[in-house]
Amino acid sequence: MKVGEVMDEIKMRVSGVEKSFPGVKALSGIDFAVRKGTVHALCGENGAGKSTLMKIIMGLYQADKGQIFLDEKPVEVKNPIQARELGISMIAQELNYVPELSVEENLFLGRLPISRFGKVDWKKVRSDAKKFLEEEHLPYSPEQKLKTLTVSDIQMLEIIKAITNNAQVIIMDEPTSSITQKEVEQLFEKIGQLKAQGVSIIYISHKMEEVFRIADDITVLRDGAVVSTDRAEDLDLDTVIARMVGRKLDNVYPKEEVSIGEKALEVEHFTQKDIFEDISFYVRKGEIVGFAGLVGAGRTETMRSVFGLDPHDSGNVRIDGKEVKIKSPSDSISHKLVMLSESRRDDGIVPVRSVAENASLASLKKFIYSGYTHRSKERDEVKKSFAKMNVKTPSLDTAISALSGGNQQKVLLSRWMLCDPDVMILDEPTRGIDVGAKFEIYKLITDIVKDNRAVVMVSSELPELIGMCDRIYIMCQGRISGCISRDAFTQETIMKHAAGLVNEESQGGAKNEV
Question: What are the residue boundaries of the ABC transporter domain, all occurrences included (predicted)?
Answer without folding.
Answer: 12-248, 247-502
